[in-house]
Amino acid sequence: MEMVESKHKWKAWIYLSPAIILLLIFTVWPIINTVRMAFLENYSGLKAIGGATFKFGIGNFQKVVKYQKFLQCLKNTVLLCVITVPVSTVLALLIAVCLNSIKFLQKPLQTIFFLPYVTNSIAIGMVFAAMFNIVGSFYGTENEIVVTAGIINNIIEFFGGKRVNWINTGSSYLANMTVMVVYIVWNALPFKILILLGGLQSINKQYYDAARVDGTSRRRIFTRITVPLLSPMIAYVVITGFIGGFKEYTSIVGIFGEKMGPADDAGRLNTMVGFIYDALSTNNQGRASAAALILFGIILVVTLINMQVSKKRVHY
Amino acid sequence: MEVTLQNLTKVFPSRNKKSGEEVIAVNDMSITIPDGKLVGLLGPSGCGKSTTLYMICGLQKATGGKIFFGKDDVTNLTPENRGVGLVFQNYALYPHLTVKQNILFPLQNLKGEDKLSKDEMLKRAIDVAKLVQIDNLLDRKPSELSGGQQQRVAIARALVKMPRVLLLDEPLSNLDARLRLQTREEIRRIQRETKITTVFVTHDQEEAMSISDEIVIMKLGVVQQIGKPQDVYDSPANLFVAKFLGTPPINVFSGYVKNEKICIGDDVVLPAKGVEDQDVWVGIRPEGFVLDDNGAFHCGLNAVEVMGRDVSVVATNNNAVSTTIRAIIPSDAGVDHESKSVTFSLKPYKTFIFRKDTEERIYLEK
């Protein structure tokens, strides 16, 4: 066995080389380079080409943290994560359980719930923006023509509520965040439902028969049997949900456009990834790299906490 | 608790709507399972025995007929209101709960008057764990147990709420041969100690005969015979029952009755008092053959298999339904291994005749 191994080792390396070379160029080197740039103060790609040298230090990190916008971005990112991941997970679980317990229309409904997953998120964002958007003079000048307050406001008004300025000029942070939460949750549901429904369908039906013979209430069946048996899937969607949540960016662009906020307060809803993007577009690769490392650190810590919790709560 | 099934019927609707053929899993079944007895439902797969068990349990609704526990009509009650304990074929232990939590689970479901305090629950769980001898495994997870231990946990979980009737679905099918012997004695002992009326389902006739007080033999949803295992073996009601019970199986021959004599081919083997002349199936248990040079029954000799205490004579006969027949005779009877033929006389009480058309037993006058 050993002889065979040594004889063909070089062959194995040759077979692996295309993948390894691509990974080295496009994954490993960028990671190393990111770390390098983060610790070179005021690093900029253009200046580097011009022959400038940069001092080694943690100046980039200090700058990032001091930056007024950074804290806003961090706050937005964390808030969106902390709200949307639990909400979407619980909703997805409820929908999956309901879907699993019906026979009639199960397949069509499954397809409908999965559709958002295959839809472009910018397109979804634009539709959501239209739903919440106010077109006309509600908040503009008096000469503008009133067109619509958006379908959501129409519904609110139908039930006797007052319309809300969701995303336009003069809208509040709370209103903006509400729209974002609704949109992100809705966007996150299909994948979670798919995973959880798959998990539910793989649970042995005999557990439920056994529970029925023992006279277990529906609630207890859900909390003591379904959820524990589904816990690996739940852990999976929560962990990937947090990781995805910290990388939130396109959804904001989808609703608010590149300004990342209402017209009168650009950047109000900017996120960590948006911050990195801004730094890159102004040729501050050093600052962008430092911010990326900070984001990496946060995701790492959150994932470690997640995994620690799941060690106790997840039953494989 | 006496369990009475009255004209119990279960019809499964056809899966294919076009063909529209319904499946009658259990057909007009009426039996009484006496209080405190261990009863085995026995039959080949697809005979409706598991369906019957699930109907007694309440997981499946009867299409027709009634089920009584004692004097209570439980036909329309849900499983939890019947007071039954069910042990599933693959145990269905909750994998994320420890043995103790598994056993406690049914008790924690109790509501209202029946609700127990934590100490009472624990006491009952430990008592039942001791009964099935798993009290040293209480903190393990099911995945850390052997098949036999899982089986005991499943029985403990079924017993802990003191059911009126205990139901076991193929209790030994997931165990290896050695454990099977041990566990079936264990089931017998637990049943004797608790005196709970117990019904179990099996396709293994040896398993059913060895521990049951009574066996119910089913075929295609219809009960064939009910009785004590030995009685059923000694006096099968029809050819199916005769063939189903016994290892090695009974030898069946195409024969006829003429002048109140049972004949197989040219051999006139036994008297048949009071039976009209007709073609019949003749069934002879392997132990019904006696080596006898002056015997009436002539066979070709194929092989002699030595088993120690007995020898198994593999013989041929033109009128046999199967290609070879098998006779078990004491090893000291002196079989001539080299001979090409062998002659038997037959034990009358090990030989049965059945009608050719209905395969019903024809009883002889004594």
Can you walk through the features of this model?
The complex is a heterodimer of chains A (316) and B (366). Chain A has a domain at 65-133 and 168-313: MetI-like fold, CATH 1.10.3720.10. In chain A, 72% of the residues lie in helices and 0% in strands. Chain A contains 13 helices and no strands. The radius of gyration of chain A is 25 Å and the shape is globular. Chain A starts with a helix and ends with a helix. With 366 residues, chain B is of the alpha+beta class. Chain B folds into two domains: 3-242, 3-Layer(aba) Sandwich (Rossmann fold), CATH 3.40.50; 249-362, no CATH class. In chain B, a hairpin with a 2-residue loop joins strand 11 (251-258) and strand 12. Chain B is elongated. The mean pLDDT of chain B is 90. At the A-B interface, helix 9 and helix 10 of A face helix 2, strand 6 and helix 3 of B.
Keywords:
heterodimer; A: 316 residues; mainly alpha; MetI-like fold; 13 helices; 72% helix; 0% strand; globular; B: 366 residues; alpha+beta; Rossmann fold; 2 domains; six-stranded mixed beta sheet; six-stranded antiparallel beta sheet; 24% helix; elongated
